[in-house]
Amino acid sequence: MTFMGYVRPDGKVGARNLVGVIPSVVCANDVAQAICRQVQGTVGLFHHQGCCQLPPDLDRVTDTLIGLGCSPNLGAVLVVSLGCEGTDHQRLVETIAKTGKPVEIIHIQELGGTSKAIQAGIDIAQKLMIKISSLHREPVDISRVVMAIKCGASDATSGMASNCVIGYLSDKLVDLGATVVFGETTEFIGAEHILARRGATPEVGEKILEIVNRMERRAESLGCDMRKGQPTPGNIAGGLSSIEEKSLGAIVKSGSRPIQGVLEYTEMVTDHKGLWIKDTPGREPEILTGMACSGAQLMVFSTGRGAPQGFPCMPVIKICGNPVTYEHMKNDMDINAGLIITGEKSIEEVGEEAFEKLLRVLNGEMTKNEAIQYFSSIDIHTLGPVI
Amino acid sequence: MSLKLALKIHDSDNVATIFANDIKSGMQVEVRDKKGNAEIITVADDIPYGHKVAIADIGINEQIIKYGEEIGIATKEIKKGNHVHVHNLDSMRGRGDLKGGV
Question: What would the mean pLDDT of A144-160 be, rounded to a whole number?
């Protein structure tokens, strides 16, 4: 089975062919936005990090931006630097350049300020866009797919319909030799014993328990009940009473295949095949960023209450498990898994429908959030204080 | 959707999830499991769409089971037909309030 993708110089395969405009620090967002407004085919990877943070977090920000820049959906990259930030923009540019794709950088302070940097950035982005616009798609094996999965704005239908559909997709992709990555470590709490049993080796099982402990300790460190933070007020209104209940519904989306290992937040998928965990929180901006940083060409995202988010360089397919929400928010939802709840379709039937959509999206068809550029769900998960 | 339906996921579950709107105290719902077994129960509270109904009596401090796993403990006596949610179910995880922080 094949799809039509952009084969990059490093052998990775993209489902999109975009110029990524990456601010190396929050202070460069305005210039990067102005460049993106002017040049067709650009996407801005705006975030709020990159300075006045402790060294481990600055490394984490640089590494995440490297992962985003290496995304196979980007054919070229323009880094926008202020000039005095804490991230290592030199290493950022050099590491992305190793993929063989064109990478350029501008420094706002060096160029003489905002308007001059915008002009220089537009000229460079225009040149990069023209350069990559002649690249074409070619048939590649489905095993080259890296699919990220997530659930958000969940309700009681998620664990019984939409996550079951993603579980079906996950098993199918793993069996076809592809890579599937799931995260949301917070939403393993109460279900970690089930995931640990699915570890490909005892060490993987132990690692799963370790990252859940780490996340739970972080949540407990403020001395309060986690409930309302997780599950969220929306989850609770939707009928989910505890993190344990939310987690047991959330892990359904990982299907049933063995878990090969745990990726750290900034880690990229290289020769990892099969089902993997990435250690991320559950909130959309941080997990979508972490997943795009893995090199995922696309994400499949399940919801019950109605989550509209997308990501600039990773199409996000929405699967809605609640039949009422689907009808109410049709413009944000790609697949109706609510028909499982009403008994009109089986998990397999909706699963095959979602798989067909996934193939079409890999080949270039847009998702609902992609077409309307619902792209603000981006930020980097840091651990320490802003100082 | 005139059928008042609730779904039980696992054999050992003591709650089922209601997938019907406007369920009021005294109404009957049909609780189905994955094997096609069905049981009619009378609900004892108003229960919103997607929320849980007890399908067995659950004593105080006893485990509440869904997906065949513990999702919390009962903070009150729960009778078959009662709404089960944050008012009578306590989570046992992420409880910095019980541990006093670090």
Answer: 96
In this chain, the answer to whether the domains covering A18-132 and A142-371 adopt an identical fold is: yes
- Confirm or reject CATH 3.30.390.30 for domain A18-132, answering yes or no: no
- Say whether A241 and B97 touch across the interface (CB within 8 A): no
Nearest-by-CA chain A residue for B68: A248
Assign 3-class secondary structure to chain A: CEEEEEECCCCCEECCCEEEEEECCHHHHHHHHHHHHHCCCEEECCCCCCCCECHHHHHHHHHHHHHHHCCCCEEEEEEEECCCCCCCHHHHHHHHHCCCCCEEEEEHHHHCCHHHHHHHHHHHHHHHHHHHCCCCCEEEEHHHCEEEEEECCCCCCHHHHHHHHHHHHHHHHHHCCCEEEECCHHHHCCCHHHHHHCECCHHHHHHHHHHHHHHHHHHHCCCCECCCCCCCHHHHHCCCCCHHHHHHHHHHHHCCCCEEEEECCCCCCCCCCEEEEECCCCCHHHHHHHHHHHCCCEEEEEECCCCCCCECCECEEEEECCHHHHHHCHHHCCEECHHHHCCCCCHHHHHHHHHHHHHHHHCCCCCHHHHCCCCCCCCCCCCCCEC
Chain B interface residues facing chain A, Cβ-Cβ under 8 Å? 1, 7, 9, 17, 19, 48-52, 64, 66-67, 69-72, 84-86, 89-102
Q: What is the pLDDT of residues A252-265, one digit of tens each?
A: 999 999 999 999 99
Q: Is the pLDDT of residue B100 over 70?
A: no
The domain A142-371 is placed in CATH, from the list 1.20.144, 3.30.70, 3.40.50, 2.60.40, at: 3.40.50
In chain B, where the domains are located: 5-96
Interface predicted TM-score (ipTM):
0.94
CA nearest to A157 within chain B: B50
* Residue in the block written with tokens 């936005």: A33
Query: Band of the pLDDT at B1, cuts 50, 70, 90?
Result: very low
Average pLDDT over residues A367-382: 96
Query: For residue B2, what pLDDT is reported?
Result: 59
Position A87, amino acid:
T
* Domain locations along chain A: 18-132, 142-371
Domain B5-96: which CATH class?
mainly beta
pLDDT tens-digit map of B54-92: 999 999 999 999 999 999 999 999 999 999 999 999 999
